[in-house]
Each structure stands twice: as structure tokens, then as C-alpha cells.
Amino acid sequence: MGAAGAFWGAGSVPLALLSLASVAAVVALSGVARRVLGALLVVVGVAAAFSGHWLSVTGGALVVGSGVLLALLGARMPKIGVGGQKTRADDPETDMWRALERGDDPTADGNPGTPSSNV
């Protein structure tokens, strides 16, 4: 975010937008794709640092730093989504939500999330 502000202040709006888009891309991507994005950010940051404006140099340094970290540690970062969340094994509320996600009626007899009493 700081790099986007620096690029915006230097008048380099496309690089500012690229910096903001990369934040969303990091959250959405995983594994090798994150490492490729990190390498791309390093290249863009180095190119931006040679533009001459001190804000562009600052933004380029921030983008290079984040790109290096992303290239090195990107595969270890968790991906967005519910699948990676840990839940308790016997949680009736979670079982009902999972039944709804599958398209099942959790209140019907025979489902794991069936409530114990009918109202």
C-alpha cells in the first residue's frame, strides 16, 4: 500500500494500480503462481526505481522488497478460503452449515446436523 502511495505521488498511476492489484492477487493466488508474481514485482520495482523521481525510487524499493519476500515465502502463505480452516470434529453447528453448503436439508431426519428436539 505504501508503494502505491509513492507511485501515485510520483505521477505514475499505472504502477500505483499495479501495486494495489498485486495485493489482491497475493490473496487469491497460491504456490508457484505467488512466486511468479513475486518475481514480476521484483522486475517492476527495479524498473520503477530507475525512473529518477525520489517517490518512484521509494515505491520501487518497497515493491522489490515485497516481491523478494513473496518469491521466497509465497508458497508457505495460506490461501484464501474456508477449506484451510480448522474446526472441531463434533460441532453440530458446523455440520449443519456444511450440510447447507452441500445442498442438503440439515433439519431432515438422518442428517448429521439434525437437531435433537423439534419445536
Describe the structure using short key phrases:
119 residues; mainly alpha; 2 domains; 5 helices; 0% strand; transmembrane; Tryptophan-associated transmembrane protein (Trp_oprn_chp); transmembrane helix; membrane
Number of helices: 5
Q: What's the pLDDT, averaged over the residues?
A: 75
Q: What structural category do the secondary elements indicate?
A: mainly alpha
Shape: elongated
Number of domains: 2
How much beta, percentage-wise?
Answer: under 5%
Return the string of H and E elements.
HHHHH
| Number of DSSP E strands | 0
Helix proportion: 55-70%
Spatial extent as radius of gyration:
22 Å
Report how far apart the termini are.
Answer: 52 Å
Q: Give the biggest sheet.
A: none
Uncertain residue ranges: none
Counting copies of identical and different chains, the oligomeric state is single chain
Keywords: Membrane, Transmembrane, Transmembrane helix
Region (Disordered): 99-119
Protein name: Tryptophan-associated transmembrane protein (Trp_oprn_chp)
InterPro entries: Trp_biosyn_TM_oprn/chp
Overview in brief:
It is built from five helices and no strands. By secondary structure, it is mainly alpha-helical. The chain crosses the membrane at residues 6-29, 36-55, 61-78.
Explain what you see:
The chain has helices at about 1-10, 15-30, 30-50, 55-75, 90-100. The relative contact order is 0.13. The chain has 2 domains: about 1-75; about 85-119, no CATH class. The model has no long low-confidence stretch (mean pLDDT about 75). The chain is mainly alpha-helical.
Question: How is this fold's topology laid out?
Answer:
Elements: H1 2-9, H2 13-28, H3 32-49, H4 54-73, H5 92-102
Helix pairs in contact: 1-2, 1-4, 2-3, 3-4
